[in-house]
TrEMBL record:
UniProt GO molecular function: 2 iron, 2 sulfur cluster binding; metal ion binding; monooxygenase activity; oxidoreductase activity, acting on paired donors, with incorporation or reduction of molecular oxygen
Residues of the Rieske domain: 25-129
UniProt KW Ion transport keyword: no
Organism listed in the record: Actinoallomurus iriomotensis
PROSITE patterns: RIESKE
PANTHER family: 3-KETOSTEROID-9-ALPHA-MONOOXYGENASE, OXYGENASE COMPONENT, IRON-SULFUR DOMAIN CONTAINING PROTEIN
InterPro entries the UniProt entry points to: Cholesterol_7-desaturase (IPR050584), Rieske_2Fe-2S (IPR017941), Rieske_2Fe-2S_sf (IPR036922)
Record key words, sorted: 2Fe-2S, Iron, Iron-sulfur, Metal-binding, Oxidoreductase
Protein name stated in the entry: Rieske domain-containing protein
Domain of life: Bacteria
């Protein structure tokens, strides 16, 4: 039976855009926010979630709703390999299986896979989960950019939660020109031309939005990586005083919390190994990290001050081609998913 989302907004195209299209891996939080023995409550992508680790340290992501009466499981008891609801003691494991109903042993609820459970992964110091439509949709392969998967790269994760729609961060990341203005006083984005022409260059996994008349000077390009996770990648040239490793590469993703808030993840990456890695890590902590947080703060202030209906009163121009393409892609996917859901429902009615 097709399950219709409890959040009514997820039954509309605009709701899916604001809360995140399904059939995606979304980053939820840094791994350190899910300590052993705790039950963590998070709202992400329109879903109410419980995160916890079993006795082996494996992270589980499940709906924060007891299958018995809907009480919050995060108010329950962590029992190592299972969670017990504090309301009536019902126990569920990491696969969503009801393993015990202490009040009525042997009742029909025992042995049922009754708790919605999201496939989960940890990578790069963050927890990810697959949001399928339907719920049991087979997850796409969990793939990450080279900068987060190769031994030749090193990185630091910066995590933020901002009071703005998640799509505002995607717009911001796919807009290289804002660096020339908003970040003009930063230590790396004060040089280069203040005007530019852009082009879109297709790739095997998405597209690159790049300046046609300047490269390797400022924030001159950004890349949308389509597929199972909403990745954005960009690179900013760095002076020799910033240490070894070539251009400073940033790998980013964002996840809606609700329609007006989101979480964003920024992995700051350098291509370094051995002593160069040690030098880069020292310089980052000693000199660069505070500067990078200052740049993110400029983005936060700008995004949080934008009205929620900003899209409805825009006047876009050539520098916004990437935003138009990305928004069309997300809207098209939302429309396809709703159409597929309606088709499944109609097929169930016919049978």
């Amino acid at each position: 039976m097709t399950r219709h989302p409890a959040n009514a907004a997820l039954n509309t195209v605009d709701g899916l855009i604001r809360l995140g299209v399904r059939n995606q891996w979304y980053a939820l939080c840094p791994s350190e926010r899910v300590p052993a023995g705790d039950l963590i409550r998070l709202d992400r992508a329109g879903e109410e979630l419980m995160l916890w680790r079993d006795a082996a340290g494996t992270v589980h992501v499940q709906e924060d709703r007891c299958p018995h009466r809907g009480a919050r499981l995060t108010q329950g008891v962590h029992m190592g390999d299972r969670v017990a609801c504090n309301y009536h003691g019902v126990q569920v494991d990491g696969e969503g299986l009801v393993v015990s109903v202490p009040g009525v042993p042997g009742c029909a609820l025992e042995g049922r896979r009754a708790l919605r459970t999201f496939p989960a992964r940890e990578h790069g110091g963050a927890v990810f989960a697959w949001f399928g439509d339907p719920d049991d949709a087979e997850p796409l392969p969990f793939e990450v950019p080279e900068q987060l998967s190769s031994d030749g790269w090193d990185h630091f994760l910066a995590y933020v939660e901002w009071d703005a729609p998640w799509i505002y961060s995607l717009d911001n990341l796919m807009d290289p020109m804002h660096g020339t203005f908003l970040h003009r006083k930063s230590h790396t984005m004060g040089s280069g031309r203040r005007e530019a022409l852009f082009q879109i260059r297709d790739t095997d996994t998405g597209f690159v939005f790049e300046k046609t008349d300047q490269a390797g000077v400022n924030f001159d390009w950004s890349e949308w990586i389509a597929g199972g996770t909403p990745w954005v990648r960009l690179a900013i040239p760095y002076p020799d005083t910033a240490g070894p490793g070539g251009p400073f590469t940033i790998v980013c993703t964002a996840t809606p919390i609700n329609e007006t808030q989101h979480a964003a993840f920024f992995w700051r990456c350098r291509q370094v190994t051995g002593w160069q890695r040690d030098t880069w890590r020292f310089l980052y902590k000693a000199r660069l990290e505070a500067r990078h947080w200052a740049v993110l703060e400029q983005d936060r202030v700008m995004e949080e001050a934008m009205p929620l209906d900003a899209w409805s009163r825009e006047t876009l121009y050539q520098h916004d081609l990437a935003l138009v393409r990305l928004r069309r892609a997300i809207r098209g996917e939302a429309q396809r998913q709703l159409a597929a859901r309606e088709e499944r429902t109609a097929a169930e009615v016919r049978t």
